[in-house]
Structure formats: structure tokens, C-alpha cells
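Exam revision sheet. Question 4 asks you to relate a sequence to its structure. Input first:
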Amino acid sequence: MKRKFDPRIMLILSMTVFGTIGLFVKSIPLASGEIALWRAVLAAALIGIFLLVTKQKIPFKKIKKEIPLLLISGCAIGINWIFLFEAYKYTTVSTATLSYYFAPVIVTLVCPILFKEKMGAKQWICFAMSTIGLVLITGLGDTAEGSNHLLGILFGLLAALFYATVILLNKFIKNVEGIHRTFLQFLAAIVTLIPYVIFTGGINITSLDAKGTVCLLIVGLIHTGITYCMYFSSLKELTGQKAAILSYIDPLVAVLISVFVLGEKMTVLQIIGGALILGFTLWNEITPKNKKDAS
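Answer key, C-alpha cells:
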């Protein structure tokens, strides 16, 4: 008899692991594009082996019409990782993560255009307050923060833009299971990232020391391969609202690690700004009108 794991525990674990990725990425002395490439390669290899061992075939005939969307979303995932890892280099993990979590706000703004969904008063309030929160985490022009800090926030927002693109594209992908979708998207990310890495600095993985190699393996195999499988498996068993609430464990863990492990400082205004972004995007997610996300 097979033992069924509690999907809530699986999602909590996956969100907690996701929240620690900045800690490991900061210890990998490679360009952001190359880190993203090896992350995709390691994760795709692990998931590919899992699919072979479990004899799960990808139904290409059934999904052939959606393959272009899968490829485009995979490209967006690769670019999203590059910008997020760049954000970690220029600002704190907490600030980069909170900027990155502006993605749901972008989705809220775009959905009325793509899906003819109306934005009510609650959505406008959430957008306005989340934007105020974003302004607060920039430091309100404090010169002590420096231009690198603002550049890091910009990279975080660009990552959010491409993550929002992935979310929106996934809404059009109806016939592909989560793990198959992830595997194909990672393959597309690899195809996208290889030429980018070659033309922007080349392959330098052989220069990694033991610490960097271990961190890269953790990011690729655990943060991406194993945790993505747990994440998508749990989503199938949970309502969209429960998944939305538990997903906020990720940024909370990232902020705690940034402050208490990495020793990165946050001002009172930045803490308030982060609370506004997370609080109001969460409020928007758990509205009764919110539809269950199938992705």
C-alpha cells in the first residue's frame, strides 16, 4: 500500500526550500546566466530520470498544440532566473525577493486585458498599496543605499515581469501535467540559456571550488529538481486559496535568512514596505472571486 504524503506538508517544505535559494546562489561565483543554465540542466536531468524510472511518457500527440506555449514559457523561466540571480548580487536577498514578489501585482493588472476580468475596488487597493510598499523598500532615495541597491530592485522587478509571463502563459496550457510541463519548460530554458552564456562570458564551471560546486548541486537538484516536483504534486491536491496562502512562506523565509543568517540590514520603512507587498498581494489572492490556479 502506497503512503500518501500530506500535500500541505509538501507545499510548506517546498516553499521553505525555495526561500533559502538566495543563500546558496550568493555562494556560487559564476555569472547569473551560467548559474541559471546549470540549474536547468541539473533539474531537467533529475526529472528526466524520474520520468524514465516511473515510466511516465510525455503524451506529445495530446499536447502538440501547446508545445509552442511551453517553449515560450520555458524561455521566460530562464530569463527570469537570470534577473533574479542578478538582483541577489546587487542588493540584499530580502529586497530582491520582495521586489520579485511584485509578480502577482503584474498578473492582476494584465488579466483584465487578456482574460476580460474586471478589476474591482479590492484589486485597485491591492495594486496601490503594493506599489507603495515597493517604493518603501527602495529606501525612498536614501543615498546610503547606493545605486547598486536600486539596480538590484530593477533586476528583481524584471524577474517578476518574466515570472508573471510564465504564470499567464501557464493559464493557456490546459492539457499538460505539472511534472511534464516543468520538464519541457526546463529543456526550453536550457536551449535559451546556452547561447546566452556562450556569448556573455562562456562556460566557467570548472573554476568552481568545492563550496561553489556543492551549492550549485543543491540549487539544481534540491531547490529545482526535487522541490519543483513536490510543489506541483501538492498543487494538484490543494485549493488555489490554500496554495496561495502557503506560498508566502517563501518570501518570509527569504527575509529571515537575509536578516538573521546573512546579516543583511532592513530599515523600518523597508520592513513596512515588504509587509505591504506581501500582505496586499495575499489579500488579493484569497479573495472569494479568485479562481483556482490550475498550474
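Marking note for examiners. The chain is about 75% helix and 0% strand.
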